[in-house]
Design brief:
The chain is an alpha/beta fold. The protein has nine helices and eight strands.
């Protein structure tokens, strides 16, 4: 079984002391590829450095809506330069977060639009963050996203109607460990069975959103735990986990233009 964690933050300080062990844990759990996601200029650079150093790791660069207030043309230019690395396969995460409002709404919108333009210029798919924007992200995508925009709505937490609109745009849907949580994940489980198989991705968002059962013993999530997300998703969709692993692997490689239909064989 080969599993692709389509969204994690191994560039987070939570892994500074044991990054190599975390990557080894992933491999031992059949998680043979990981997309390491940037959220600031600094963390994007760290994502690229990790991806260039470890097999099976890839990187994205971007400015998270929480950090939009620190956006600048200089930072955008630096991110574009980082994207010259062949290990950078996506732009993001970027989007709108009107829940915590760490950056003003108009500032979030400005840098979201600027980043969609940058991704289009570089022909990179987008990793979208959306929380409580009440359709505003969809409005901006319709107004500003390039034709045939490629991307994934990471950690999907919207409504059934929003999900259908994202799917109509040709976007992928990222499923996290929320799916495994009894009460919090109920609506997501209801919607996850309706997502077309060829639009599904699985992710951890590590070090956040630790799935069950791992959340009962540790607070820190890690890519190895995406296997629990995959198995829960297979259970609710009434499908074989090995089949779903293969499908989500192929979906992730297709979205991020990764020429890796199969993971490299492990040597004993």
């Amino acid at each position: 079984m080969n599993i692709f964690d389509s969204h994690c933050h191994l560039n987070d300080k939570a892994y500074h002391k044991d990054l190599e062990q975390v990557i080894e844990n992933a491999g031992n759990a059949d998680v043979n590829a990981m997309m390491i996601v940037g959220i600031t200029e600094k963390t994007s650079r760290q994502a690229v450095e990790i991806a260039e150093a470890y097999e099976g790791c890839y990187a994205s660069v971007g400015i998270h809506p929480h950090d939009a207030k620190r956006g600048s043309e200089k930072a955008l230019a630096a991110l574009k330069e980082m994207a010259d690395s062949p290990m950078v396969r996506a732009w993001g995460e970027t989007g709108l977060d009107f829940n915590r409002m760490h950056s003003p709404a108009d500032v979030q919108e400005k840098w979201f639009v600027r980043q969609t333009a940058a991704a289009a210029e570089l022909d990179l798919p987008l990793i979208f963050h959306e929380r409580d924007s009440e359709g505003r992200l969809l409005d901006l995508l319709r107004a500003h996203a390039p034709k045939n925009c490629r991307g994934v709505v990471h950690c999907f937490s919207g409504t059934p109607g929003e999900m259908e609109q994202y799917l109509d745009m040709g976007l992928y849907i990222g499923i996290t460990g929320i799916l495994t949580i009894s009460k919090r994940g109920r609506q997501l489980r209801d919607m996850a069975v309706r997502i077309p198989e060829d639009r599904l991705l699985v992710e951890t968002d590590a070090p956040y959103l630790t799935p069950a059962p791992e959340k009962n013993t540790t607070r820190r999530n890690e890519p190895a735990f995406v296997k629990s997300v995959l198995f829960k998703l297979a259970e609710i969709r009434n499908t074989d986990p090995a089949h779903l692993a293969r499908v989500t692997w192929e979906n992730t490689c297709r979205l991020f233009a990764i020429d890796a239909p199969q993971a490299p064989e492990k040597h004993q």
